[in-house]
Specification:
188 residues; mainly beta; SH3 type barrels; OB fold (Dihydrolipoamide Acetyltransferase, E2P); five-stranded antiparallel beta sheet; 15 strands; 51% strand; protein biosynthesis
């Protein structure tokens, strides 16, 4: 059983008899206390989809849920669901648009190394690679002679995500985006 300080985003834990997926973690260190850090976790019940926040001390022990990770590829959108196919046996996994709204901004047909998280035979979340390649569909014109370390400008990508890019990037280029920080990494 891991401590609260060892839990990461997208881990699944059993809390209050429910299987929950951790969507966000905020760490704070209270002033004037001899104790350790406090972890505030935003969690979703994988069965009902209910959202709730809970606070843990860094030494609190949490129980990990049985979780299966399967490599998948994005296939298509069916109404309010994204459909992913297992890379090995082509099993379709349907995920609700709302439950993966943040991850959907990084997914297109070419995105590789996506994993679906399955709890009790139910797909509950996506685990994205550290970086993805996306196409710039709209940005201000590139400036000739702009240096790589100079100012940035907003760029809208093919998935609707908006990130800041260096001035030398132009519409139609493919760029690498860090999925954790939502930031430009490099040209693809």
């Amino acid at each position: 059983m891991p401590k609260a300080s060892e839990i990461k985003k997208n881990h699944t834990i059993v809390y209050g008899g429910k299987t929950c997926i951790v969507r966000d973690i905020e760490r704070s260190v209270p002033q004037g206390r001899a104790g350790g850090s406090i972890y505030r976790m935003r969690m979703y019940d994988v069965v009902s989809g209910a959202k709730f926040d809970e606070t843990f001390k860094d030494s609190d022990m949490l129980e990990m849920a049985d979780l299966v990770r399967r490599p998948v590829m994005f296939s298509y959108i069916d109404g309010d669901e994204y459909v992913f196919l297992d890379n090995e046996d082509y099993t379709p996994y349907h995920l609700n648009k709302e439950s993966i709204a943040d991850e959907a901004l990084f997914i297109n047909e070419k995105t590789e190394s996506i994993q679906v998280l399955i709890v009790s035979d139910v797909p509950v979340a996506l685990d994205l690679p550290m970086s993805v390649e996306l196409e710039v569909v709209e940005t201000d014109p590139s400036i000739k002679g702009a240096s790589a370390t100079s100012r940035t400008k907003p760029a809208t990508l093919s998935t609707g995500l908006v990130v800041q890019v260096p001035e030398y990037i132009s519409t139609g280029e493919w760029i690498k985006v860090n999925t954790e920080e939502r930031k430009f990494q490099s040209r693809a």
